[in-house]
Amino acid sequence: MGRIYEEALKDVIYDEAEVPAYTLPSPLIREDGSRVETAFDWVNFRRGEILELYKKEVYGTVPPRPDSVWSEVISVRNDALENTAIRKEVRIHFDMNNGRKHFMDLLLYLPKAAEKPVPAFLGLCFKGNHVTTDEKDVRMTGGNLAGNPDFKEESRGCSLERWSHRELIRRGYASATACYHDLFPDCKDGWNKSIYSLFYNDPATPAVHEKHSAISAWAWGLSRALDYLETEPGVNASKVAVHGHSRLGKTALWAGANDRRFRLVISNDSGCAGAALFKRCFGEVVELILSNFPHWFVTSFEQYSRNEAAMPFDQHFLISLIAPRPVCIASATEDVWADPKGEFLSGVHAAEVYALFGAKGLGTDVMPPPDTPVTGEVSYHLRTGQHDQTAADWAHYLALADLYF
User: Fold this and answer.
1) Which residues are catalytic?
2) Which of 206, 301, 340, 388 has the most CB atoms within 10 Å of its CB?
């Protein structure tokens, strides 16, 4: 940790009494000062303004599709997960006409007993596909990050509960994942091994960082995985939930904001620059997150370090970009770094956009007690425990999927 980070840690707020006074802007006020009154005006005018604001000042632009995308089935197992699932490992190739190439490896489980295409859960994993399952013959991925400590046999299945493939299959859903390192190795100097190498001669130049980020690269990968699922006969690609934990929860929200094909968007403990309000300055703040992870954001985001009050937006704007599709925000009681109350309040303040579509959104401004989910077009739950994605979280997500799918 650097000196700036150490100094900033001294000022971290964990007490509600220390939260500064703040004013939240309304997502319904357009740049010209006029107010959006209808869903038509939101979709055709205001939504685009907010999306461009986030591209310019937070996450950057999600690149276009490459010139060519094609898939290669690496393996198929018809008796996966105790003969309850069909397992596929698919390499998705990205090619450019100038010869540049990249790929990511998708792990897909399909319910073996399904008689028709099923809805799916799609999310990126941290350490490699092999950590999400205890099936020893799944290929190890994540090697695109130099020195990945989990690119080894001993790490197989170490994130088993966070993925719950068996429970998803039991409930009749497909489950798909790819390692985020395939798309942008999660390190400050990961640019040259990222998907931006498809589009730029030198992805590591400051000019690329001014326009793009790792989070936009990861969101791009989720959309490319959805492209593949649209070709998969066993998946109903009109009913795909995109989910993510922590930094990948931020990614899921940004992917859902950019790609309206995702039917349900799930943010699990996404915290600062995810679901939590910036202006509360509670727990992790802009200065701290940039000190460790500058590659997650475009360089213009730096202007808000110790300057959150100047933001012309806050994260309820990001939640609003998903309207009217259902979005789920999840927190954990011991994860104060991620500001559970700030995550909840983003859902509360997105309600005025959902109301344009005749939806009540969260339906309450009173934070629920732990382990008491609030379910609506915007849903929220505060799980007892630490920063993680557990079976209790999955129980809420599956209940939502049952409701909306």
Assistant:
1) 246, 387
2) 340
| pLDDT surpassing 80 at residue 336 | yes
For 302, phi then psi, to 5°, come to -60, -25
Confidence (pLDDT) at 1: 55
**Which domains, from first to last, does the chain contain?**
45-404 (3.40.50.1820)
Confidence of residue 104 (pLDDT cuts 50, 70, 90): very high
Write the burial class of residue 113 (CB in 10 Å: 0-12 exposed, 13-18 middle, 19+ buried): exposed
pTM: 0.97
Residue 6 has pLDDT above 80, yes or no: no
Angle at CA of residue 177, ends 174 and 181, nearest 5°: 175
Residue with tokens 């010139």: 67
- What average pLDDT does the chain have? 97
User: Could you give the dihedral angle defined by the CA atoms of residues 14, 17, 20 and 22, in that order, rounded to the nearest 10 degrees?
Assistant: 110
Beta-carbon neighbour count of residue 290 at 10 Å?
A: 21
Q: Which two tokens stand for residue 37?
A: 């009154």
DSSP string, 132-198: S---TTSPP--TTSTT-TT-SGGGTTTTHHHH-HHHHHHTT-EEEEEEGGGTS-SSTT-GGGSGGGG
